[in-house]
Amino acid sequence: MKINKFVASIVCVSAFFASCSNKTAEQNQIKYTHTSRVDGDAFHFFQVVASKVPYEVGYASHVNTVGASSKAKAVATEIEKVYGDLFPQLESIATEFYVEIPLRGAAKFVTDEGTVDAQDSTEVAPVVVFNEESYLKHTVEEQALVIEQFKRLSRNTNKKLRDFAVEKLPALEELYVSSGGVIEKEDHH
Questions:
Q1: HSE on the CB side for 85, CA within 13 Å?
Q2: Beta bridge partners of residue 110, listed in sequence order
Q3: CATH topology assigned to domain 37-179
Q4: Where are the domains of the chain?
Q5: pLDDT tens readout for residues 39-71
C-alpha cells in the first residue's frame, strides 16, 4: 500500500512540475488568452503600421492607374515599392511574436469603381475620388505617422524589433523626404 501511495505521489508531483515549466506556461498563455509576446508599444506599432501599409499600397496602385502628374506617379511607385517590400517582413515578425496580421476591421482603399485593396476587412473606408494635391498631402501625413511608429519601435526593449525598425527607418525617411516631407532633428535632451 505504501508503494502505491508513493508512486501516485511521484506521478502527481512530476505532472505538477512539468506543467510549471516556462515554455509550457508561455504556450498555454498564448493559446488560451490570445496574448502576444510584445509589449504595449510594439503591439500599438503593429496595429498602426499594419493598418496603414496595405491601405497606402492600394491607394498608390490606384494613383498609378489614373491620369496623374509624373510627381504623383513617382511618389506612388516609391510607396508601392517600399511598403510592398515592408509588409511581408512585418507579417513574418508579427507571426513570430504572436500578433495577428492582417488586422480584422482595417480599412480598405475604395475608389468610385470599387475596392482596390484585396485585404480581408469588415470596415470600408470612405470612397476616394482622386485629387493629386490631396494625395500628396495625404501621403506625407500618413508617412509621418508610420515613421513616428518606427522611431518609437527603434527604442523598444526587444532587440529584434529594435533592429528591424533601425534597418527600415532610413528607407522610410528617404521616401518621406522625396514625397515632400521635412524631417526635423530630434532633441536628445
A1: 9
A2: 115
A3: Ferritin (1.20.1260)
A4: 1-35, 37-179
A5: 889 999 999 999 999 999 999 998 888 877 888
